[in-house]
Amino acid sequence: MTRLKPSIYYYDICRKNIRKHRIEKGLTQQQLADLSELSMHFISEIESTVKNKTFSIETVGRIADALQISIDKLFKEN
Question: Alpha-carbon distance 7 to 70, whole Å?
């Protein structure tokens, strides 16, 4: 039987991918915040590995749309 991973594991994959794709697109956190209609502070918290901020699937969808990528790319392990 496969052992379930803790929920923070999935958040960590997503937050790392958000940061990676944001940087690849040449966007600042403020620009991503503006495009996704979220606050820069919230984007900063999402990307932070220290704060372990949780976020909704709606938020992930908004960010994926702002980055112009499919949402599944934010959940791929590297």
Answer: 22
Helix, strand counts (H, E) of the chain: 4, 0
Q: Are 36 and 25 in contact (CB under 8 A)?
A: no
Q: What is the pLDDT of residues 38-67, one digit of tens each?
A: 999 999 999 998 877 889 999 999 999 999
pLDDT of residue 50: 86
Tokens 């112009």 found at:
68
Place of tokens 């991503």: 32
* CA 33/CA 41 separation, integer angstroms: 8
